[in-house]
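not sure who needs this but someone in the group chat was asking about GAD-like domain protein from hydrothermal vent metagenome so here u go. i didnt clean anything up, its just raw.
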Amino acid sequence: MSDEYFTEFLEGEGFAPALDCHPVDEETLNRYQGKLPDRLLGYWKEFGFCGYGEGLFWTVNPADYEETLELWLKNTPLWGRENYYVIARTAFGKLYVWGDKTGNATTIISYQHTIMPQDIPYETLDKEKIERFIGTFFSLQDKENADAYDKNDKLLFKKALKKLGQLKPDEMYAFVPALSLGGVADIKSLQKVKLQEQLSILAQLEEPTILKTLHEMFGEDLYS
């Protein structure tokens, strides 16, 4: 199922090789058949749930994030608007959320308590567009966007990797204390922590800020 989109993700931006891969069983594939794009399920079947870019970017099992996702979205206008599935995350707890109406991932930047939603399209997305959207989601990934910045606008991942070591699938790098509690975006403040526990803690510290969609900002129909 590896195609030009995933090849660009792996080789174009240099996210290869995959690491700490866990095979995806048929039960999981069947659970998301018809809910998530066939192309994504094909990636899962071929590669499994893996880390990429030395652990900067991870593909994940949406089932592991259902409770966390509810904590982040349930008190926002987004909750109930469509069905959401976390399909990927970064080393710093940025979550990429697929919507069954919006397609392209809404993004939860947990350490900044910020949600970047996608526009609801005016027409139901056809299968061809859905499959293309998930392909471009991967092919357009870049390491700088997946990384986090320190207080001086310097990228942190390489420094964190060197200082704290490679992440496991259930770990993330976190600012301690959290930025919303007065923490500083600095390599000295980063710790390796359990992923789900940290995401749950951050979700309960304060209500997230929901940014405007591109359509709200620019008035463009991105789905035409």
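also The chain has one domain: 4-146+196-213. if thats useful
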